[in-house]
Amino acid sequence: MIENLGSILGIECKTSQTIRKKDVQGLIHFTEEEAARGIVFYAGQDIKVLTDKILVCPFNVLV
Questions:
Q1: How far is CA 23 from its chain centroid?
Q2: Alpha-carbon dihedral sign for residues 6, 12, 17, 19
Q3: How far apart are CA 50 and CA 63, in angstroms?
Q4: pTM to 2 decimals?
Q5: By CB count within 10 A, which of 1, 6, 18, 40 is most buried?
Q6: Nearest in space to 62 (alpha carbons), one of 18, 3, 13
Q7: 3-state secondary structure at position 60
Q8: How many structural domains does the chain have?
Q9: How does pLDDT run across 21-43, given as a tens digit for each residue?
Q10: How confident is the model at residue 62 (pLDDT cuts 50, 70, 90)?
């Protein structure tokens, strides 16, 4: 989790090449309860919008 000026970002990392909502239920719950946003880094290739508050990004966007 990263907090900056009142904004909260929850972060998860997964080794899977696919991400489904059931894989990140904790992050979904967190973003709903805390009015936060989330990002999931994974081993896949595509950037995707998982929910209106959660973005899924491949690890390679970091390097």
A1: 11
A2: negative
A3: 22
A4: 0.90
A5: 40
A6: 13
A7: helix
A8: 1
A9: 999 999 999 999 888 999 999 99
A10: confident
DSSP labels for 1-56?
-EEETTEEEEEEE---S---GGGGHHHHHHHHHTT-EEEEEESSS--EE-SSSEEE
Reading the block at residue 37, the tokens are 């946003």
pLDDT for the residue numbered 6: 84
Q: What percent of the chain has pLDDT over 70?
A: 100
Domain that holds residue 24: 2-62
Residue with tokens 């973005």: 55
Alpha-carbon torsion angle 32, 26, 62, 19, nearest 10: -100
> What are the backbone angles phi and psi of residue 32, rounded to the nearest 5°?
-75, -45
Q: What CA–CA distances, in Å, run from 56 to 6, 20, 23, 29, 40?
A: 22, 10, 12, 16, 5
